[in-house]
Amino acid sequence: MMATAQQLLKRFNDMKTLPHVAIRLSKLISDEKSTMQEFEEVIRLDPTLVLRLLRVANSPYYGVKQKVDSIARAVVFIGMKNLRNMVVTEALKDIFKGGTQEDIFSRNQLWLHCAATSICGKMISERIFGQKGEDVFLCGILHDVGMIVEDQTAKDVFIQTCKAYEPNSKQITAYEREIIGTDHSEIGDILAYDWKMSPEVQEGIKHHHRSLNEVSPSSIAGITQMAVYIVSQLNYAAMPGMKGILSPPLATHIRDNLKEYKALARDLPDEMSKARELYEVQGE
Fold first, then answer.
1. Which of 284, 283, 271 is nearest to 137 (CA)?
2. For residues 245 and 171, what is the distance between their CA atoms, to the nearest angstrom?
3. pTM to 2 decimals?
4. Which domains does the chain have, with CATH numbers?
5. What are the pLDDT digits (tens) for 223-265?
6. Residues of 91-109 as b/e, b for ≥16 C-beta within 10 angstroms?
7. Sign (positive/negative) of CA torsion 158, 160, 236, 133?
């Protein structure tokens, strides 16, 4: 499977790599010795990013009383991981556009699913577990990018896979492996590694369609799988009829905290509207 995935990635022309600034930011974030000066030097490489950073920092989303007019202050308000997510999200938006045979596979629908998953995952991380959700957001926005690779590099067999897919039969990844020779989770895992994402984010992408006997609900993999399941139930599915899978430990966790998850699901549309100002993730 990995060999097939790597062959498809070699033919992936829309975005062979994330923008240089995104990869540099990821490296700096993972290095505890990084300084604010190093972050500023990287951000200044992209004038458009500087303008957007300052615009977001001064937006009503943050409600600052005095104008933020420096990169350093803007980063303090937004946070480096949120900034990295902004860069990654902006880059991904372009490759999710277009595509053919929208009645069979819609890139726009997939983008909305990824956006909903990323926001729902961030909500779960912060509300349920009281932990920062930036990396969970990143995993959610990236988790299905492998489908775009398949759509571009192996369109005929990918469309064949979509036509053959029976939502009530088995996971889409099983059909992908049978027809294409790999699946979008495997492809996404390799991309996340190439793009210098953390091992935890890679694991979340790799396992979002797998039933795991052992997975912590508070882990990125656990939260991402729960987010995919929840948004699919709320009509934000990646494909018509597609349902997320829930590993046994995750199903037990949601059942034990059902009241909190119902409240979270009710709040998701509002949170997506709020996030648009920061990440610009909603479908156009």
1. 271
2. 8
3. 0.85
4. 18-95 (no CATH), 96-284 (1.10.3210.10)
5. 999 999 999 999 899 998 898 999 999 999 999 999 999 999 9
6. bbbebbeebeeeebbbbeb
7. negative
